Amino acid sequence: MKENENxxxxxxxxxxxxxxxxxxxxxxxxxxxxxxxxxxxxxxxSEFYTHRAELSKRLIEEHGYRFIAxxxxxxxxxxxxxxxxxxxxxxxxxxxxxxxxxxxPTWMWANEEIAAFAEWLRAYNSDKPDREKVGxxxxxxxxxxESMDExxxxxxxxxxxxxxxxxxxxxxxEPHGREEQQYGISAALYGEGCEDEVIDLLxxxxxxxxxxxxxxxxQALSAEMxxxxxxxxxxxxxxxxxxxxxxWNVRDRHMAEALEKLMDYxxxxxxxxxxxxxxxxxxxxxxxxxxxxxxxxxQLLREKRxxxxxxxxxxxxxxxxxxxxxxxxxxxxxxxPPAIPGSLEELLHRIEPVDKLLLLGQASPAADSLQxxxxxxxxxxxxxxxxxxxxxxxxxxxxxxxxFIDRTHALSPLATELVHP
Length: 421
Prior knowledge:
Layout: H1 2-13, E1 14-16, H2 24-30, E2 35-38, H3 46-63, E3 67-73, H4 74-84, H5 94-97, H6 112-125, E4 135-140, H7 144-155, H8 160-173, H9 180-190, H10 195-205, H11 217-240, H12 244-266, E5 272-275, H13 278-281, H14 297-305, E6 309-323, E7 332-336, H15 344-351, E8 356-359, H16 365-368, E9 371-375, E10 390-394, H17 395-398, E11 401-408
Parallel strand pairs: 2-5, 2-6, 3-4, 3-5, 6-11
Antiparallel strand pairs: 1-8, 6-7, 8-11, 9-10
Helix pairs in contact: 3-6, 7-8, 7-11, 8-10, 9-11, 10-11, 11-12
C-alpha cells in the first residue's frame, strides 16, 4: 500500500520533460533565487552536464546570472575562467584551457560537454565589458600545492611583505614533498602543521581586490581565493586522517565560504549558478547525512539565505557512466543497472519510462513526507554493490525541483585512456 501511495504522489508531481526547451516553468521558479544549485547523480553522466548547461544558458541570457561555481579546484577552473572571458591568447581553444585539469578524476571537467559549454560562454562574453562577463570558478579545496604556486607567481610582482608570508607558508609545507597524506599525518598526529602560516597569508590577501586597479581586480581575487583554498586544504588533509565526517564538513563549509566570497566580489545584486553532486547541493537535513553529523552546501546556504536558494536534483533509471574501480585508477565506461525496486528512480520509471520533471516547491504536505532511496554514484563505482549507492531521501525537502532522465549515457572525456567494458 505504501508503494502505491508513493507512486500516486510522484505521478501527481511529475510532468513529461522532453528537453530543456520545455523548461519555462522550471526557469521561472528558479530565477527568483540568487543561488540556483544544480546537482548530478554522478560525475560521469553526459546528460547531467548538457542539461545543466542548457538551463544555465537560459538563466544567464534571460535573467542575468553572473557566474557559475563548480565542484572543481580554483587554479584549473580559473584558467578556464580566463578563457571564457576572452583573456587567453588568440588561437587557444577551450580544449587547450581544459588541460589544466590534470588532477584525478580529470574527466569531471576535462570533457567534451564542458568544452562545448565553454565555447558558448566565450562567445556570449565576447561583446560584453569586463564587469558584465560571466565567470566560471572552482570552489573546491584539493589544490594545496597548485594554489601555493599560483599565489607566489602572482605576488612576485607585488608587495614584498606579502611574498614573504607566502614563502613562509610554502617553506612550512615543503618538507612533505607535495604529498597531501604525508602532510596530514604530520599535522594530525605529530602537531607539525602549517595552520598559523596559512591563516597569516590569507589575512594579508583578504579583500586586496577592493583596492586593486580594474585590470588587476580579478587577479587579486584569485590570489585570495587560492589562499582560501590552501587554508581549506590544510584543514581538510589534517582532519581527513582522524575524522571522516569532519573532513567532509570542512570541505562543504569551505565551498559555501568560497561561494559567498565570489558573491561579495560580484556585488550585492549578483546571482550565481552552482554545479555540484546531488550530495552537496541537496539539503543534507533531508537525508541520513544529518544523523551522522554531516552538513553540505545546500543546507548551509538554506540556513543562511532561506528563500534565496533553489536546488535542482538530477537522477536516472539506467544507462552508462564514466567512473573508476578504485581511487586513481583508469576511467572506464560502466553500465548503470536499472534502479532498485521501490527507489525514487525505479518508481518514476515504472510510472512511465520517459524523462520527467518534478516541481517540488509546489508539493503537498504528503510529498514533503515522501521518503525514498535515491541513487548517488561517485567517481569510484561498483555497480555490483548497487544497493549501497542509495541515500534515504525526503525528496520534497531535499530539492525544489528534480530532473529525471530515464536513460543516460557516459560523459565524453578529453583524455584518451578511456577503457570500455
